[in-house]
Amino acid sequence: MQKNNSSSPQTDKSLLARRRFLRNLGLLGATAVSSFTLLEVKAREQKANTTGAVTAEKRWGLLIDTSKCSSGCDACVRGCNEEHGIENEGNDATRAQWIRKIDLKDKLTGSESSVPVMCQHCDSAPCVDVCPTGASFKRADGIVLVNKHTCIGCRYCMMACPYKARSFIHETLTNQKPAAPRGKGTVESCTLCVHRVDRSEDLQPACAVACTDEAHSAILFGDLNDPQSKLATKMKEIGASQVRADLQLNTGVRYHGL
């Protein structure tokens, strides 16, 4: 006797309910993100799409000159935290870090350097590859972001990132800034101050501004695709390398002096 493979109306309703549940999961992780913040982000995305501002013609990136970076300076970290409303929520194990300072010492030569580490905005981003909902994504201009609407807090991206550049939000957040939506139960990382970039290409990310204000000028932002840009010109002049270049991720953040 041949088995009947047709589904019953009750089974169809069950499948629809499951699909609806999975679709709504993306909203659960972002319950702490205020509605006005999400609406403002959506409006900015729509503006970028209608104006054609985000294209592959540009690829935004950073050059960090470690020879100008002092181990005792955390201006870039403070500037980033202030710009995005990152306060001292949580403890040392759970506190969000969009930028962290790492002191390195070469065992062979004894040379030391202080290195700011953030999301490297990889061209072939592992976080994007493993995200099950598409919440981790790369814009056409190379900036890697997290969509808080669809992030379910699974943290696969955190495990995949070789730079440990992402943070998971454990605590309920208050006093958030409209330009930087954050939410309990979601993952976040450096955005290259995308809200500033979308407003004006002449605006530097907060970390670069803070570094310049401290008279170090160790961080330079610009277009990697434009050979005439200040960033590309400086890279040609002093040289630059990638952290873990062997992974062939083609990072948007480059370092001099490592």
Describe this structure in words.
This protein has 258 residues and is α+β, with helices and mostly antiparallel strands. The protein has one domain (29-256): Alpha-Beta Plaits, CATH 3.30.70.20. It is 31% helix and 14% strand. The protein contains eight helices and nine strands. The strands form four sheets. It has a three-stranded mixed β-sheet with strand order 8-1-9. It has a two-stranded antiparallel sheet with strand order 2-3. It is globular. Mean pLDDT is 84; it is low at 1-6, 24-37 and 47-51.
Strand order of the largest sheet: 8-1-9
Structural class by SSE content: alpha+beta
Instruction: Give the domain tally.
Output: 1
Q: Count of helical segments?
A: 8
State Rg. Answer: 21 Å
What separation lies between the terminal Cα atoms?
72 Å
What is the arithmetic mean of pLDDT? Answer: 84
If classified by CATH, what would the architecture be?
Answer: 2-Layer Sandwich
Overall geometric form: globular
Q: What is the tally of beta strands?
A: 9
- Helix share of residues? 25-40%
Strand content: 5-15%
User: What string, H for helix and E for strand, traces the elements in order?
Assistant: HHEHEEHEEHEEHHEHE
Largest sheet: 3 strands, mixed
CATH class: Alpha Beta
